[in-house]
Amino acid sequence: MKKTAVLITISSTLILGACGSDSGSGSDLDPIVVSGKPWTEQYILPHILEMYIEHHSDYEVDLQEGLGEVAILQPALENGDIDMYVEYTGTGLEAVLGEQADEGESSESILERVRTGYEEAYEITWLEPLGFANDYTLAFAEDADFSAETYSDLAEISSDLTFGAPHAFYERQGDGYDALVEAYGYEFAATESFDANIMYEAVQNGEVDVIPAFTTDGRIERFNLQTTEDDLGFFPKYDAVPVVRQEVLETYPELEEVLSGLSGQITEEDMQAMNARVDIDGDDYATVAEEFLMEKGLIE
Q: What is the Cα–Cα distance from 75 to 21, expressed in whole angstroms?
């Protein structure tokens, strides 16, 4: 009887040990929660992450699309409500860390600053850039009754212009409306608040005169919007980078290496074309993401 009990105990221990040794596999782990912001590009990118992760690992992904802007996503990440999303370096630097970029500061320098700052303050890691920057450009309609080549040119006529932007732009600290107005001395006649996916039609239709357009938005080219140069270097670079909780990288040990395969794979032209397919052609986010990955040979 004693021998039987010992054998059962040893066998049970071996079985449990064998199960525990596979703790890094995806089968016994919760899905990785991937989220994003509530506008086109940020709906497409989570699908790209989801499909790429699931194709190249055993991990499962739970998408929580369009959760909110950085003021919502950052606390959600800190609290473990989500595991990762794609953020932009300039946003992380100024809106989250409360630091200012130096005029003309390089993408590499800003990435290093946010990487260090997030790891020290939040135990969140910035992985490798996806390959494109989604910068700001102040844009106006082709048939506008004014012209400008720089942000400073717009300052000279701002009292005759209406400025339109997403609501979140007016709330941003460091790189939002108030700081922009102070830097360039704008005195806009009025301001309007729009959904980020509507403001392009608003400026095209003459509802407002100027908008802070995203350089990867396909409607800039399709609508032939006129863009201006940030001649004072007010805005930092906004390189797109997956941000993930360090605890998640420890729990899912293959994740960082898997995602490194996306580094440098999405150009500004790629992102602009994907955005245009959704915003203008009416294609859905998942289809656009999947076809991009397949055309690039990143999934089969």
A: 33
